[in-house]
Every structure is written in structure tokens, then in C-alpha cells.
Please model this.
Amino acid sequence: MENFKTLIDELNAIQDEDVLLKVKAPERTKIIAIIKQIQALLLPDYYLIENMSQEQILDQLAKDLKKEIQAALQFNSRDCSICGRLRDQFLEQMPKMKRSILTDIQAIYDGDPATWSKAEVILAYPGFHAIFIYRIAHVLYTLQIPYIPRLMAEYAHEKTGIDINPGATIGDYFCIDHGTGVVIGETAVLGHHVKLYQGVTLGAKSFKKDEDGKLVKGGKRHPNIGNNVVIYANATILGGETSIGDDCVIGASVWITNSVEAGETVYFNPNRQ
Model:
């Protein structure tokens, strides 16, 4: 091909107004850098940023986070004057975030006999990596900051195969064992001491449509999981009105669309009629 300009003109003539950028969007690489800065502040022995002290990292995080929050708000056509306040509200929640993360490390260590130390959990476990980033993204989500939480969640998804929507509400001592293929929807609510194995889906049962046939956004679509619940590999639990009570055990490869009372054990029986 000799005339590249013709090709570029042809490509640029193909447009969808809904995907045209009218203002600068949050930068994915900057969001990943912010994740690493937060990790270095919360667990400094494991997430080093060379040649930077914690004070320098915090100073850089404050600048970068405010800038990306501003970009996200502008991209969402919202008032940008609150970006500094939102940044500060996030920073104030970091001690609480760290306390939750330490409980997650404890839960994974307690729940996996193959783990010989908490350091191994931090260094090597994809379940912990996904939970760590979820804890960060969820705080930003609760502050109603657009785009950034989802970019963080999808980065974790890309790295671990674990898809946790930042809108999900998850209690302390959360353990994901192995993890690949886990999906946790936006409106799912999980209690404390919940353990999930690989392939578990906490998803929506159906999608409502409006009179024009378009999906209705929002609403409670994903299940509630009580405290001290174990859900084994490839179990699928669907629906916003579906609740799994405290102390339940959900066996592998079951399909659940109705609530389960506390203390019950549900398992797949291939001989059941």
C-alpha cells in the first residue's frame, strides 16, 4: 500500500459519536501506577518502589490520584472542584483498608494447608492479589468516582483471571482459593469469613429490559452471601433476591437461584430425579 493517508482518512471517516473522546479520559497506565503506589504504602516490605521513601510515595500518590480523579470527573461531565476532597477522603480510609487486607491474608493462610507463611500469600497468591486491588477499588467506588475503580478491577482480572466488580460489598477475612474464573457481580454482598474456590459465579439471574428492548441499568442483581460460608469450585449462584445463610456449605458445580437457609449444605447429586 503506497497511500497511507487515504487509509487513515477512511478510518477516521468511520465514527460512532458515543465513543468519540471530547475530553481527556483517565489513563490506564497511570491507574496501574496508582495501584502500585497504594500497595507500597499499605505493605511497604513487599511492594517496593525503588529510590522512593514512603513519604515520597504518599506525596506522589496524592498528586497522581487527584489528577486522575479530576480526569474521571471531567470525562463524566461532573463538577471537578471536589476532586481534592474525594482524594483526601480516599487517603483517610487507607488505615481501614489495611486492616481489612491483613484479615484477608490471615484467612488465606488459615484456609490453605499448602501455605507455609503469610509472606507466601502476599508474594504468590493470585486470590490475594485480586482481593488487594478490590479493596482499593471498592473505596473509590463508594466515593462515586467513575471509571477508575473499574479500570483497577479489570487490571486485577487481567492478571489473575478473577473478576470482582468494585461495587461488590465484601466482609473481612475473605479467602479465594486458586481463584481462576471467579466472578463476583456489582451488587453482590458477602459477609465475613467467606471462602470461594475457582470458577464460582455470584451473578445475575436475568436482565430486565425497558419498553425499547434495552437493558435496564442498576438495581440489585446479584446474591447475598452470609458469614462463614464456603462455596466450592464452579458453583453458580444467581439473582438479587437469592440469599445464602450463615454457615452454609455450597458444593461444587451446583446451580442455585433460590435462597438457602442458614447452616444448610447443598451439593450436586447426579442420581436425583
Remarks:
- The chain has a mean pLDDT of 94.
